[in-house]
């Protein structure tokens, strides 16, 4: 019985790897933030950015993001509503909703594709991870998404 379980586990992992792939995107650009600072030092920010991206499938494109971020006096994100629109070199487009709860200087989060055309249509409903770093008003992200072939 133990050997059957090991064989089943091996084939399950092997087949999962065989029928899935990873999409890795690198996004760079510049961000702008307009802030309101409340009397308790909570900040309400209107965030927008504009950048370019490449992926591990030889695709490239542009992306813009807009949204609202609320940060408490301790520096913790308490509300985050951010959407990004992108377009690849073929003219196919996507829209993703981003989510994050880490520090604004650098951190991790995830995004959910909520709309897409062409090759992006198959990613609608897919949740992917990202990591972001800032240097002054420049940002650099790496996105990773496991997708079915």
The gist of it:
With 149 residues, this protein is mainly β.
How would you characterize the overall build of this protein?
- This protein is mainly β.
- The protein has one domain (22-148): SO1590-like (AOC barrel-like, Beta Barrel).
- Helix content is 11%, strand content 63%.
- The protein contains 1 helix and 8 strands.
- Strands 1-2-3-4-5-6-7-8 form an 8-stranded antiparallel barrel.
- The radius of gyration is 19 Å and the shape is elongated.
- Residues 1-19 have low confidence and may be disordered.
Fraction of helical residues: 10-25%
CATH superfamily: SO1590-like
Number of self-contained structural domains: 1
- Quickly give the structural class: mainly beta
Provide the low-confidence segments as ranges.
1-19
Following the backbone from N to C, one meets helices and strands in this order, namely: HEEEEEEEE
Major sheet size, sense and barrel closure? 8 strands, antiparallel, barrel
Put simply, the count of helices is 1
CATH class: Mainly Beta
Overall pLDDT score? 86
Secondary-structure topology with pairs:
Layout: H1 2-18, E1 20-37, E2 43-55, E3 60-71, E4 77-88, E5 93-100, E6 106-116, E7 127-135, E8 138-148
Antiparallel strand pairs: 1-2, 1-8, 2-3, 3-4, 4-5, 5-6, 6-7, 7-8
């Amino acid at each position: 019985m133990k050997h059957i379980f090991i064989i089943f586990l091996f084939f399950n992992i092997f087949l999962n790897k065989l029928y899935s792939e990873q999409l890795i995107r690198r996004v760079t650009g510049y961000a702008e933030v307009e802030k309101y600072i409340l009397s308790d030092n909570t900040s309400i920010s209107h965030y927008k950015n504009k950048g370019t991206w490449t992926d591990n499938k030889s695709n490239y494109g542009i992306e813009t993001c807009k949204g609202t971020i609320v940060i408490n006096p301790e520096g913790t994100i308490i509300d985050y509503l951010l959407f990004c629109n992108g377009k690849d070199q073929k003219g196919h487009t996507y829209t993703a909703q981003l989510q994050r709860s880490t520090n604004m200087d650098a951190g991790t989060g995830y995004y959910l594709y909520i709309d897409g055309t062409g090759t992006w249509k198959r990613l609608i409903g897919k949740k992917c991870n990202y990591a972001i770093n800032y240097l002054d008003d420049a940002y650099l992200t790496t996105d990773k998404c496991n997708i079915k072939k």
